Amino acid sequence: MNIGRREFVSATGAAIAYAFFSSQAVIGESKMYGLIGKMIAAEGKRDELIKILLEGVSGMPGCLSYVVARDPADKNAVWITEVWVSKASHSASLKLPSVRAAIAKGKPMIAGFGENFVTEPVGGHGLQKK
Fold this sequence. Notes:
Elements: H1 5-27, E1 33-41, H2 46-54, E2 63-70, E3 77-84, H3 87-93, H4 97-106, E4 110-119
Antiparallel strand pairs: 1-3, 1-4, 2-3
Helix pairs in contact: 2-4
C-alpha cells in the first residue's frame, strides 16, 4: 500500500492532535503516578507469589491499573505494572490492611528485585481518572 506525502502529513497531524487532547483530558491538573518493577520469586514459588499479588487488588483507592505478568524469559521473574491517580494514593495503599497482609504473606517467596522504573502515565486504553 502506497501512501502519499499529503495523506501521511494529514494522518500524522491528526494522530498528534488526538494524543495531545485525549491525554490532557485524562490527566487533568494532576500527574498520574506509574511504577514498573521486576520481582524475582524464590525457586518454584512464582505462581504462588503471583496468586498473592493478585488477591485483593480491586478496590485500592486511586489505583487505575495493576497488572501482574510472568516473564517468559525467566521462570522466576514477575513484572508488576501499576498506574495510580497520584503518588500519594500509591503511598496510602501501602497502609491498607489487605496490602500489608499480602506483603507479609508474599515476603518469604521473594528472592529479590530487578529493574524498577517510576513513570508519569499520560493516558491510554483503560486509563480514566476516577
